[in-house]
Amino acid sequence: MIEFFKHFLQEFELPLNNPVLIFSLILFIILLSPILLKKINIPGIIGLIISGVIIGPHGLNILAKSSAVDLFSTIGLLYIMFIAGLELDMNEFKANRNKSLLFGLFTFIFPLSIGFPVCFYLLHYDFNASFLTASMFATHTLVAYPIVSKLGIAKNQAVAITVGGTILTDTAVLIILAVIMGSSQGNLNQAFWIKLTVSLAIFSAIMFLVIPRIAKWFFKKLESEKHAHYIFVLSVVFFAAFLAEVAGVEPIIGAFVAGLALNPLIPHSSALMNRIEFIGNSLFIPFFLISVGMLVDISVILSGPTALIVAGTLSVVAIFGKWIAAFFTQVVFKYTKTERQLIFGLSSAHAAATLAVILVGFKAKILDENILNGTIILILITCIVASFATEKAAKKIAICEEEISHEDAEKDQILDEHILIPLAKTSATASLLDFALLIKDKKSSNPVTLLTIVPNNDQAEINILKYKKAVDKFVIQGSASEVKINTIARIDHNPASGIARTSKEIMSDIVIVGWPRKTGFLDKIFGENVDSIINNVDKTLFICRFEKTFIEEKRLVFICPPFSERGVGFQLLLQKICRLSQELSVPIVIYGEYKTHQTILQIANNLKLNAKLGFKSILDWEDFEAISDEIKGTDLIVFNLSRKGSVSYQSIFDKLPQKFERSFNDNNLILVYPHDGRKESAMDAYEDFTATPLQKGIEAIEQIGRGLGSILKKN
Description:
The protein is of the alpha/beta class and 715 residues long. The protein has helices at residues 2-11, 19-38, 44-55, 67-87, 90-95, 97-122, 127-138, 145-150, 157-184, 190-221, 226-247, 251-262, 271-295, 305-333, 337-347, 352-363, 369-412, 429-439, 460-470, 472-479, 495-505, 521-526, 530-536, 570-584, 594-606, 624-628, 656-663, 686-689, 693-714; strands at residues 419-422, 448-454, 485-491, 510-514, 540-545, 555-559, 588-592, 613-617, 635-640, 669-673. The longest helix is centred in the middle third of the chain and has 44 residues, at 369-412.
């Protein structure tokens, strides 16, 4: 017993050495510190950093800086930069790249311009030390980015330009670091510049030309191996970080570039994206924040007035330089004060790149111990300031966006969105469900409903059991994306009748069906007819044919005939088209008349839709070649059609989808019949509609027979 207690107490000797105990302690901190600090309105990020200060070697010495801690810390830092690149709305970034460039210039020039005179004249450091310390002020780490991501405003324009500016300013600073190191070692010659330029060019070519092609091939070939997708993505991130280091810049640049390279291939609503964010935000990123706190040595403040003066001066200059950059960005682009605060909050935290610059300078004896200690205090102060500023601004913007969306919903009388997917064959269900998850409104609490219609015969109960067993895997597919999947089985003589009834019962807004199967002559007379679904399902109806994965798409071709934009359901359709464009990171090309294009631009502006809209003028709709000549195999074709009886219906468009099906049999094709607001209900036609086509035919023959009989009797 005594031996047991001795062994037990040895395990708790400080600093802890047992890896299981260390990992347990870290997990408890990650779990409890945000929960406890939330009660006193302190951001969870600060709780993690302060926890690191307390348990670190300069605090209670519970945990020492070991290789394992350094490894997890590095993974967390790379994860932050990778997610920032992956979540970046590429359409928004491309549209605002000039703003990102200007912000990057501001956040680089102002801190550098303020910091250099302060270090050179006020703190009396030499030129190299002053310039290197001043360049450190220009860096920033997106420590507060998880706050923005969690509150769902990662696609806000202020966030997009800050993230874009981060990579520009950090790259510039890290190149300056390489130049100063070369200068201090006497290697700053022509060979140095040639080597740096060539290595960066090779790195960029590998990341933007080679990696996306390998990723496309991998995702396509191993489509069913979902766990392999995550491992592949992680491999790319760390390989990119290694390549960046070889190229002469910091690994964080490689991780961010990996995010940009994989961005078009990983939709933001996909299960893979959910896994990446979940594991990063739950484990790796908190580990990094704790490790930042472990670097902080509070005792340096007590070591003498010089360390205190240097730490205070560095912190004030760092915060003021970033605030000035955010202020000028607000003035130039006419942003609100809240957006300025958000830009300042995101860009004011100093951690990774700052530490990299200072540690390299300290080891090379360019910087002294006072700068090192002052920088560590600066990291703690700026991370706390950034977290408070970001959370306050992000909450205001999130509340404002939610109020606007509620106002729009009330204005348009839009209820919680509900998507219904009738299943004819389970082989096509996975792609239809993927499509539904891409276009689904994230704020809707309704599930995606999978429906099957079972014929009313002796095998009905057995068929229902078979269906329930078959759809279990699709429930799991939805849960991987944190979307609830509901399953319904209905017994009905006619599939179209069952779909129409169910869509009314569950009050669905959108119905997504697979492409009709090719049938023979008898099937066309007596079998399921897609026209019955089109005419009797008075909802926004998507008829989808997906021949390949979405990652192969390079454009979204939206064919919009005249007057179809006037339909009641067109706004909802345009929202879904723009959401699909954002998820797949592809531009939209509208095929239509000039008036249609102008109306769409006006609707997009009113709804504040962020999408890159191109235009191709179509004057003669009967000339199929004029419409199809520029469509490529990598285009996703969306055809906006109208039901018979609606205002925009024209018979010349009835045959166009068939021509597209024949001419573009390798393309993904979607036919859309938007909700047209017809007053008569589809339920009115059910008396004649519920009987099977065969029964209808028999009744018609009997009526004809009775008519002929009466004529013969008269004769």
